[in-house]
Design goal:
Length: 173
Amino acid sequence: MFTPADFLKYTQWSGIATLVFAALAIAGFVFKWGIRFRLIGSTGFMVVLTGGLFALSLAPLSRTVIPGAVRYNLVYDNGGTQTVITIPKQITTTELEATLRQAASDLYSYGRLGALTDNQLTIRARTIIHPEPEISVPLYLGQVKRSLSSREDSQMTIEIYQEKFAQLPQTTS
């Protein structure tokens, strides 16, 4: 993953290339080259590219990684206060807690709707079980509720449904 320092280095190189394109564009107008207007377009593109790289060098692009979390998939998100993730059947309670914390960190956004209602984002974790052939049943194993207004939420509540873990199929190794 690129760091802001990497983007700053790319900004410097892109800035140098922008100056080279600008010098070529000026030379194109002085010597009346046929590609002078294309050089102006290329210079404009390089200015926009350099500006974008500079903006990326200012903002941190880091992602919080919670140890012990397993991969999950987002299956429902209303853009506001409700989301559902799917997790593997072979998950433990400690992995589920870490995964719920990871999802709460990943899915937080300032732009979520719902700040006017209860100001809570609810993320539910589920898996699919098959009690009989050709029958699929969603099994909710836990949920996390976090604030929509604060990235660092110290009041985050995690609920793990222990009774639901007994319904998971037992794997034989």
